[in-house]
Amino acid sequence: MATHMTLSLLLTPPTFLSPSKPVKPSITKKKPLSISASLQSPPQPPREAALEQFWQWLSDRGAVSAKSPARPALVPQGLGLLAQRNISRNEVILEIPKKIWINQDAVAASGIGNVCGGLKPWMSLAIFLIREKLNPESTWRPYLDVLPQTTDSTLYWWVALVRFLVGFQCRSEEELAELQGTQLLSTTLGLKQYLQREFVKVEEEVLVPHKQLFPSPITLEDFYWAYGILRSRTFSRLRGENLVLIPLADLINHSPDITTEDNVYEIKGAGLFSRDQLFSLRSPISVKAGDQVLIQYDLNKSNAELALDYGFIETTPKRNMYTLTLQISESDPFFGDKLDIAETNGLSEAAEFDIVLGNPLPPTLLPYLRLVALGGTDAFLLESIFRNSVWGHLELPVSRANEELICRVVRDACKSALSRYHTTIEEDEKLIGGEQLTPRLEIAVGIRAGEKRLLQQIDDIFKQRESELDELEYYQERRLKDLGLVGEQGEIIFWEAK
């Protein structure tokens, strides 16, 4: 094997939620917090009186009536929507007028509209939410009073760790330790760092220069709360410039048994002669009176994303995902050529590949691996003459040295990643099958067990490939066959001149 062939493989998250990537908000599932599971004293569920005030507030604004099919109520998850009568599949259960949406228009019409115009949409909504929450006389008070103070999202685990570091008593260090070695922990901490940087900027640009506009000083923890509300409670297609909170509709909970997201909600006109808009929410399944109305939040989210966004996970295997990150090293003598080939085929200097439990490897993973590892006598494939056909060659084994290298590096990376967890798969499975876990420990154990199964799956795939290295057909053999220089038994044919 050529000694200068290198391959960089990262088994940690490539990025957290970076500013260049849009926030992907969707609806929240609100799980109850027990004392043993929370990092601080768990908030009590809103009282029936608060729900009644919220319902009256909605009624006064024309959003609901006594005939509305669904009504907010206390449910096992915290708050949810209960059917007031039998509801048919695809029946509209809510129509919320735009005048009570919390969006950019609401911010612009508020007392901080002039100072929030240049902020990112999610940031202006976050500042608006905090300001209204701090104002006892806010017209949004009935809605704000039913919003949770925290959820089981891993974002709030870390928030509480900050509280612990400044002297508050909590169990955050124990809970975060349960995520040791996971990509979810790295993603959570990365998101936290991003939010801290954004808070410093908004503090300098808006909060301090215009402190007279706010009832009291806004803290970093307030900022985390507002971001968590937006990330967990807005619908998946209403993000970016269209980010919006829909009071009442955002109380609907998630069901893993519902496998469709289509036609659940839409924004439509209020009527033929009206210029107003309505947020219309449908039930994807039939619901009996007194049962909870549920939807599917997002079929494509991994368990790690569900845990970070909403504070729950599923047992569905396809929800377990692990991200492999490959990168072309800038020190690679063929960096420019490899980057050109990668970009020509829709990839870049660094590429992320999501591995799903029980699924085959992504189709572009092996070609990209071979490209990154390409060197030595195989480097001729990087010449310009092969530029239009090289990706086709990389879809098949290039050489034994190249294939052996990618197998070794991937397996070493898997072993290294597995060594960073403080428990084994067997120990996690014993916990899962044992006594009832607290909600947050259930998330931690489920996440790390899923990641370990995926790492073992990846290792098994490349272990099997290693055992087949002598049986694989490589570029040179394929080329000789194309030229008619290899016989049926694989022997090289030498043509003698007559």
From TrEMBL:
It comes from the Eukaryota. Signal peptide: none annotated. One of its GO terms (biological process) is methylation. Pfam families: Rubis-subs-bind (PF09273). Keywords: Chloroplast, Methyltransferase, Plastid, S-adenosyl-L-methionine, Transferase, Transit peptide. Residues 61-298 form the SET domain. S-adenosyl-L-methionine binds at residues 233, 253-254. One of its GO terms (cellular component) is chloroplast. CDD domains: SET_RBCMT (cd19179). Its EC number is 2.1.1.259. It is an enzyme of class 2 (transferase). GO terms for molecular function: [ribulose-bisphosphate carboxylase]-lysine N-methyltransferase activity; protein-lysine N-methyltransferase activity. It is found in: Plastid, Chloroplast. It catalyses: [fructose-bisphosphate aldolase]-L-lysine + 3 S-adenosyl-L-methionine = [fructose-bisphosphate aldolase]-N(6),N(6),N(6)-trimethyl-L-lysine + 3 S-adenosyl-L-homocysteine + 3 H(+). Substrate binds at residues 233, 237, 250, 265, 297, 310. Its main location: plastid. PANTHER family: [FRUCTOSE-BISPHOSPHATE ALDOLASE]-LYSINE N-METHYLTRANSFERASE, CHLOROPLASTIC, UNCHARACTERIZED PUTATIVE METHYLTRANSFERASE. Belongs to the class V-like SAM-binding methyltransferase superfamily. Plant protein-lysine LSMT methyltransferase family. This is [fructose-bisphosphate aldolase]-lysine N-methyltransferase. It comes from Turnera subulata.
